[in-house]
Amino acid sequence: MTNISRPSVLSGMRPTGKLHLGNYMGALANWVKLQDDYECYFFIADWHALTTDYADTSQVKANIGEVALDWLGAGLDPEKCILFLQSKVLEHAKLHLLFSMITPISWLERVPTYKEQQENLTGKDLTTYGFLGYPLLQAADILLYQPQFVPVGQDQVVHVELTREIARRFNQFYKIGGNEVLPEPKVLLTPSPKLPGTDGRKMSKSYGNTIMLTDTETEVRQKLKTMVTDPARVRRTDAGDPDKCPVGDLHKVFSTPEKLDEVYAGCRSAGIGCIQCKGWAADSLVQILGPIQGRRAGYTAKQALEIIEAGSVRAQQRAAQTMREVDAAMQMPIG
């Protein structure tokens, strides 16, 4: 089995285009921290993009490039971690196929998001095996690299637990000399602060309420001008509560403790208006986005894709090692 000096982690993102602050705070900022202490595999999950958007694949290729640039801009370093494209490593498909032979359908049907998304995405036909089986492909994505940890938010813990169940079932059937091949990965919970969009709901492209990592200072300030605030503060002279205000939530994540103290004092005493408070929030966001955009500008789209291509070669070498062990355990011809 692989002997790596540092514990390994794996995670991925679907290529839906340019990333927003919700993506950054929900996963990407944590990945940047992990790369210094873990053997990291981060992949762009282009096959997963097909599970709900198979009818229109026209933007997948362009979106891959945008995600790669945003990753590099955020601070992921190809010298410290392996950045790769799922579809460039065919072992993902092979392990998914083998898992499909041993996984009960009932395990897939009980995944909470299976019925939830069918109910919410009523405009799409999700009665496909690809949609039903995407947690199985996700399990293959993870177990192929035999990681010790999977960094996820609380809402994804159920998917990691299914991955652990699939590993247990595989190891029950197949071993090499009595030794298990696929270790059960542990959850590495990602701190995910409450990050509202401009309409107060969770920041999401589907709501059209995002602040993108590539937004200019002018765009950031314009978006924040229209952001909803504490509904109880109707007039400028009304006292407000930052704990009930989406702009206050942004300050909690991005502003300094000193500025946050000013926000609380000024809002609760009506010493500042919402326009000023929004301007302060914009100042903090611009400070965060500036370095990200500066790093992003240091790469061309071609260079970003070359980095993903090189990472995919390294990932394939690691994946092939696992598949040799899987084939041996299953007493199948080793490819």
Order of helices and strands: EHEHHEHHHHHEHEHHHHH
What percent of residues are in strands? 5-15%
Radius of gyration in whole Å, from Cα? 22 Å
| Main sheet specs | 3 strands, parallel
- Could you list the spans in which at least 5 consecutive residues all have pLDDT below 50? none
Instruction: Briefly note the CATH topology name of the largest domain.
Output: Rossmann fold
What is the overall silhouette? elongated
CATH architecture of the largest domain: 3-Layer(aba) Sandwich
What structural class results from the helix and strand content?
mainly alpha
Distance between the termini: 18 Å
Task: Tell me the number of strands.
Answer: 5
Strand order of the largest sheet: 1-2-3
| Alpha plus pi helix count | 14
User: What oligomerization state is this entry in?
Assistant: single chain
Blueprint of the fold:
Blueprint: E1 8-13, H1 21-34, E2 39-44, H2 50-53, H3 60-74, E3 81-85, H4 91-100, H5 105-109, H6 112-120, H7 129-132, H8 134-143, E4 149-152, H9 157-173, E5 186-189, H10 217-225, H11 246-254, H12 257-268, H13 274-297, H14 301-330
Parallel strand pairs: 1-2, 2-3, 4-5
Helix pairs in contact: 3-13, 3-14, 4-8, 8-9, 10-13, 11-13
Care to give the gist of this entry?
The protein has 335 residues and is mostly helical. It has helices at residues 21-34, 50-53, 60-74, 91-100, 105-109, 112-120, 129-132, 134-143, 157-173, 217-225, 246-254, 257-268, 274-297, 301-330, and strands at residues 8-13, 39-44, 81-85, 149-152, 186-189. It has a three-stranded parallel sheet with strand order 1-2-3. A two-stranded parallel ribbon has the order 4-5.
